[in-house]
Design brief:
Layout: E1 17-23, E2 34-38, E3 47-51, E4 56-63, E5 66-71, E6 80-86, E7 97-103, E8 108-111, H1 114-120, E9 122-124, E10 131-138, E11 144-145, E12 148-149, E13 164-169, E14 171-173, E15 179-189, E16 193-200, E17 205-208, E18 227-230, E19 237-243, E20 254-259, E21 264-267, E22 283-287, E23 292-301, E24 305-314
Antiparallel strand pairs: 1-6, 2-3, 3-6, 4-5, 4-7, 7-8, 9-10, 10-24, 11-12, 13-23, 14-15, 15-16, 15-18, 16-17, 19-20, 19-22, 20-21, 23-24
Length: about 350
């Protein structure tokens, strides 16, 4: 099936749809729909993928004052449309792009401005064609009504993470200015995800989280369930799983990492707490795309971790030297940062 071109009544380009894929689904997934940006090296093939494993029922697109609704066959005997691809360049990027997605399982995903999501999910290396992609898990917002949890599918694309924002690459320059490979990741997990620390072959380490406490002293992560993941030479981190439900507002519950040799470490903390039952949909699986590999981590947090994600780059291409000088790919925190929040 190919969605036909739809002319908008505004003064800018027509809304174009690339292909939609149909698959026969005999059982309906309980997973909510997803909205995922994909970026090309030259910006000309950028896209936003709208997907639901149970099939799409409806997609409503609002760009400024123009609204368009796309409806799909949602019968059990019908051919499900599992994803559609929309092209950002076909919309007025000076106006918000609101997306409302209804899955055939009744789950809803909303994004009031997809441009915010796009800006956060890509890093372009200066003076090169290389694009690094980012994807993360953000802690679920806990809301209660009369003592009962009543949260819904929150919009991670728009969540404002207020903690210290950091990035840690799996290769990093040491004090001598030379690149050093990550040899170990210490996953600091207690009742929730405290953070992580990456250790390098030259002996230095960098935290995935705060460097300093509010009084300016060195921050140390807790975590009685902490585990070390040793990374042999020639082995990559291929999967990161994050439990989005912790004990507090937007706090992550746990994490595991898996290597290309099958080694796995960490703890997801699949506990039931605060009047809310654990759900399998709380686990966010982060993996590199085709032709990519995980080259670093990023996120945000204060005393605990509220966001943890992966940075991916080309599998068979070395990152240029200027990559390691980019502030957005480092964990930079002044000692006075925390006291000013």
């Amino acid at each position: 099936m190919r969605i036909s071109t739809i002319r908008q009544r505004g003064g800018y380009q027509a809304v174009r749809r690339r292909r939609s894929k149909q698959l026969a689904i005999h059982t309906r997934s309980i997973e909510a729909p997803s909205i995922t940006p994909q970026f090309s090296e030259d910006c000309k093939c950028d896209a936003i993928i709208i997907e639901c494993k149970s099939g799409l029922a409806q997609v409503k697109i609002t760009n400024g004052s123009i609204t368009e609704t796309l409806s799909y066959d949602c019968s059990l005997s019908g051919q499900k449309t599992c994803f559609v691809t929309i092209v950002p360049e076909d919309f007025d990027q000076s106006k918000p792009l609101r997306l409302e997605v209804l899955g055939c399982n009744g789950r809803i995903k909303q994004c009031s401005n997809a441009w915010k999501m796009a800006l956060r999910d890509v890093v372009r290396i200066p003076d090169s064609k290389i694009v690094l992609r980012k994807q993360s898990a953000i802690g679920i917002d806990i809301r209660f009504m009369n003592g009962v949890y009543c949260g819904d599918d929150d919009d991670e694309a728009e969540v404002e993470v207020k903690g210290h924002k950091w990035a840690v690459m799996l290769q990093e320059r040491g004090a001598d200015g030379k690149l050093s490979r990550a040899k170990r990741v210490d996953l600091r997990i207690g009742a929730i995800l405290d953070g992580a620390v990456v250790y390098y072959e030259d002996g230095h380490s960098t935290p995935c989280g705060l460097r300093f406490t509010p009084n300016g002293s060195i921050h140390h992560f807790g975590g009685h369930n902490s585990q070390n993941l040793h990374i042999p030479s020639g082995v990559d981190v291929v999967k990161v799983e994050v439990n989005r439900f912790g004990w507090g507002n937007r706090i992550l519950g746990g994490i595991t990492m898996t290597l290309s040799n099958g080694t796995k470490a960490g703890w997801l903390n699949k506990h039931n707490s605060a009047g809310r039952m654990f759900e399998d949909t709380d686990i966010r699986v982060l993996e590199a795309g085709v032709g990519e590999k995980i080259v670093g981590f990023y996120g945000s947090g204060s005393h605990y971790t509220e966001e943890f994600g992966i940075i991916t780059g080309p599998r068979d291409e070395e990152l240029p030297a200027q990559t390691w000088d980019m502030p957005e790919l480092q964990n930079i925190q002044n000692r006075g940062w925390a006291s000013n929040q």
